[in-house]
Amino acid sequence: MASSSTKSPPEWTIEKVIEFIELYQAHPIIWDATRKDHKNKNLLADAWRTIQQNMGMNFSIEDLKKKRESLMSTYRLYRKKISDSTRSGSSTDDIFKPNWFAYELMDRFLAPIYDKSDTVTINTEVR
């Protein structure tokens, strides 16, 4: 019987996702577009290789990038829900509170990046 040459995707347990997020956070060259080296392909590749080596070789760089996109998509969805709930003029009890296990961990380092792009400055100073 011939064996399949296709590799099955790695298993993403909650612990592995948390480990990945922590490694991802440790490499801001990947996620912080304000860094001068953010577009340096060699440094980016080095950062992804380091994450891969720490995660274990059963995770390809492609697997890691797919997981990053999935996590970022979910993170942005929750940020939008929070933003929408605060714009409606609702009380603090009505503000959406995400219960997704990865939100707080990701928000710790991504919020400043997203807050810069989301912020609209309104002068409320009374003269």
From TrEMBL:
It holds the Pfam family MADF_DNA_bdg. Residues 19-114 form the MADF domain. It comes from the Eukaryota. This is MADF domain-containing protein. It comes from Parnassius mnemosyne.
